[in-house]
Amino acid sequence: MGADQSHLPELENFRAGQSYISFFVNGKEYNVRLDGFDPEYSPKYVLVDFLREKIGLTGTKYMCREGGCGACTVLVKSHHPKTGQEVTRSANSCLLPLYACDGLNITTIEGLGNVKTGYHPIQDRLVKFAGTQCGFCSPGFVMNMLSYAQVNPNFTGGNVEYSLDGNICRCTGYRPIIDAFKSLSSTVSEQLSRKCQDIEECYKCPLLPLNTSETKDKSFEILTTSRNLYLRDSTSGEEWIKVTSFPAVFDILQSLSYVQKRYRLVAGNTGMGVFKVDGPYSTYIEITDIPELHEISMDATGMVLGGATTLTTAIDQFMVASKMDGYVYAPEFAKHFRRVASLTVRNAATLAGNLMLKHDHRELASDVFVLFESVGATVRIGSSPTLYQNYTLMEFLDLDMTGKIIMSIHLPTYAQSYVFRCFKIAKRYQNSYADVNAAFLFNIDKTNGFTVSTKPSICYGGVNPSFVHAKATEEHFIGKQMKDALPGALQTLTRETVPNLSPPLTSPEHRLGLAQSLLYKFVLGVIRQSVQPRLRTGADDVDRGLNIGTQTFDTDKSKWPLYQPIPKLESFPQVSGEAEFINDIQSKFNELFGVFVLSNVAKATISKIDTSHAMIFASKKVLYAGQAIGLIVAKNKQAAFQARDKVIVKYENIQKPLLDIKDAVKLQLDSKSNSNVEVDMGFPCRGISSELAKTIMKNMKGSSKSGQQQHRNANHNKVEGSLKTVKGEFITRGQYHFHMETQTCLCIPREDGMDVYSSTQSIDHVQAAIANCLNIPNNSINMSIRRLGGAFGAKISKASLIASACAVAAYVTNEPVRVVLDLETNMKMIGKRLPYLTKYEAQVDDTGKIHQLISDMYCDPGAIPNEPSSLFATVVLQSCYRAEQWDLTPHVAVTDTPPNTYCRSPGGAQGIAAAENMMEHIAFVVKKDPLEVRQANFIQKGDSLVGIPGAKLTTTNPLDGMVAELKKSSDYESRKELAESFNKANRWRKRGLSIVPQRFPLHYADFRLPTFISVYHADGTVSVSHAGIEMGQGINTKVVQVVAYTLNIPIDNVKIKPANNLVSPNSALTSASVTSELVCHSAQQACVKLLERMEPIREQLGNPSWRQLVAACNAKGILLTSQCQDLQGDIVAYDVWGATLAEVEVDVLTGDYRIIRVDIIEDAGNSLSPLIDVGQIEGAFVMGLGWLLTENLVYDEETGELLTNNTWEYKPMLPADIPEDFRITMLKNTPNPFGVLSSKATAEPPLNMSVSVMFAIRNAIDSARKDVGNLEWYRMDAPVSREDIRRLALTSLEQFEL
User: Fold this and answer.
1) DSSP string, 855-891
2) Main localization of the protein (predicted)?
3) Which of 296, 239, 237 has the alpha carbon at shortest distance from 266?
């Protein structure tokens, strides 16, 4: 370490070089000094932080900081180091080191369009197609699409879905975003063209390039000259060296090796999004601009790809090669590479970088490595400009790479007798690492019974860290005909394939099964024509079709702007980055940043905390992993995280945690441990107080007594045939809310107390919590909230935890404090949707009618049972069915996980899922179509309602008509017959359909949501502030429509101001689907009061304009403000009815699937704003799909830590996961006589109907089980992963016939 530096001439030359970087952002040049001028700058400081914190461009968002969500996307232009041509690409600014920005031309959302200069067509189209809700993700989508469109000006609709594989949207369900961008494509469909024509100012909007200016031309000149850089962090001593030639980089590597410094070669830097804890490194060497690393050549002998070739460029080369002889693998390579990471990551990630990740992390199931190794690729490794050697990839894995560089990858060509195929089975189709990937290269003599002429290549990833080649299986095939060799090959493969157990990876059994299935699929594909026809589709991938969607609704033009289908009024600020979220508020002088220290074990006692810089919350007992132990505050974000990482917490008395609701219920039943513990079953989210909860529970018991049966329908009471017992259990597990804006709070001490900006759904709750923590009056807390970046229930009570800690820190330091949870902390610390276990025992007759039901519903509120929802779940369990002789009991089963909380349709989603699972089970037992059983049990007018003393259904059940309409419009009977025929004709591919009806009770709790209206005399414009929190549901737009309609003024004359606790004190939380309606009602009533006050002046003036009326009223001293707050009972409860048909196709061999089509019919009354309500329906449904299919939460069994705590492990839906054909119908001519202006809520009910897809999958699995002679009932819990599908389909090696 203290060696004589005279031996390091090249490194010394660099150290004497330039200490600043230059680049352009939106046409403006920035020269950033990096010689200690700003202590925050370091090699790990990334572009997104510079944009937001240093130059105030907060339109670019961040959430995951690992390249997995797309919120941080920007457009980057540079010059190709080899060709000098301009390169345009989308980039994750959260992964792009600031030090690597030298010479770049960067465009952020602010450089595209805005309210003053006008909007870009991409922004405009996204707005007009209602493609935004909370808007947090919108700038990222726009910038990604802009980048792709500039590179591919003639892009197609299919390209759109391909390009959006790295952008997550929790709100919209993607369909409107996809449609918006497809409408700009070269292959726009007639349907989308018509939609464009119907949208004002949207038709024939050309896709315009960004305007070029003299400043940008100047940047182009700068970009043409690559330069060496030496940058040093004066605080840590870390070095950043940018080199532009091979001789320079090898000299530096030699110098660093001499002094034994750890270094990192940097090109795309995307690996830091996966392996965040690699390092520490003293030196970072940027090698992106070395021309030799970008060498590409291709001829009849093979292909050479430079080590710095990006995955995107590689795909382009494979597409070229696919048209040439010898590259038998190229088409498959191109298809497979498109499923590696996301487009934005592929634009930066290099081939050599990916291979080095595999080199350093053998557990990585690298698609690049598996594919390259399968075709015998070699890598050229250099240790000097003239000293290099080619290695096989297997040799490379064991090579000490210190002082060496992957210069290039060499791919051979093969004769046409070779057959290549590759596969990837993952948790999600797009942007997900493989559970198992595989590649097969066989030299086959097709004229000799498909004889394997030479040793084949059989490669796998994801099996275990050391397993690549199935060597014994390769040997087995040599010289044999494939059909004859397969049985023995599968047995051999089974013996040599030993998957490891490594959560959160899928089980070893599943990964072994996939290895077997993929070899079988390959063989089926090769000898397709010689196998039984019913087996042939087993060879195929699950190819997804392009997304299409239709939306059908009614609107009364005579009452516009009420009921008018308009985009959200905040949409333009959202797509331009002008919409301000809490973390966009500019930093204050001396502002501090807070970071939580969390427990990494559950059920323990803290023995020691080694820090003097943290506020300590938990000094002794730890209840769950993720519990907040303390909060560290520092001068900036980087310093705070560094300080957190240095905190050492020691524990004692560590016990193994209880993590699964199944185990918790068993323990409770076995020990009766909770029999004497009374849990408050109140449900504030639905306005159910503790006392009301007790009353409801008593009523549930009372409704099962014989004395209550006098109102029963005689026909339903009649037993058809004999009674049968149907008994079972059903589990639905948790779900992370995945709001794009994590929990955030900014607290600023003021002369009168404290200004608080909290990302909360409940202003009153946060205000009271902070005042209580600080022991100060409530009127010392000034709160203001303009919008949230999504919430879904996570920010009702949990926001108070973050806000209280932030406020204490601000109070103690007397400085502004900002707390923005990083994704992993948010996921570990904050509870999720409550898991449920439902036990049921029903007495049913031959028609499936339920004559008696006993059900116990257990919810898991986590370690602290303060937010159970099982009471409401038992109410919703009734759904649309008669509930005579139903004995329902809600329970709580506590686990050692973070306290769970409300999540979109809390209790309701679990109740509906449990009810529909029972219907499936009953149908199986009585051997009826599940739809027939559901209809046989439909509730009718006059039937009792669960949980509400004396309550009965007072309206006619519309579901028979809705189901009939759904069956007709969806061509259900024909599609059902087609699916049955398809299943008979195909052993390994199955289709399934399911219709699920729903009744969702909407009760108006005692939610007090005051609305305040001000009218300005100078021009008659109106401002409104209300207590509802805008978080994507469109509440502000609906309020504006109601106010404009009631006052008979244009929409443009009304603006919504942020919610605050001065105008709206003591306000209720925003939740339960009803806030929009309640606020609209209070706004309407406030307008009515105002108009009544103005009426005498109107009569005096005759027929004045609004502006004249306002001016006259003001002159007469009439108060031009109005306020209203609804009281409980002002609005009557009602039911939301719906029916959904889902159709799926399942690959029995792998568990992969596609959702072919979904038809939803929902009774939404007269929709106040149809585009918003359609968006709510689609978004809720897709969120439900994630809960039921892909979003699996995995905990460490020993520590209780959440393992699926980032976008690498946790997989919400992406565009390729949604229904290919997505059809939404809101019933026409069905005004709601009980709702606000005849409307109904739409935010929650559609999520419940997503179970239709789960049961369509079950229907497909049933066919697969029938093929193997198994006709038994089987339990299928949620989420239903691909692993579950394969397991439940009873797929096994013994069935692999030819």
Assistant:
1) EEEEE--TTS-SS--HHHHHHHTTTTB--TTEEEEEE
2) other
3) 239
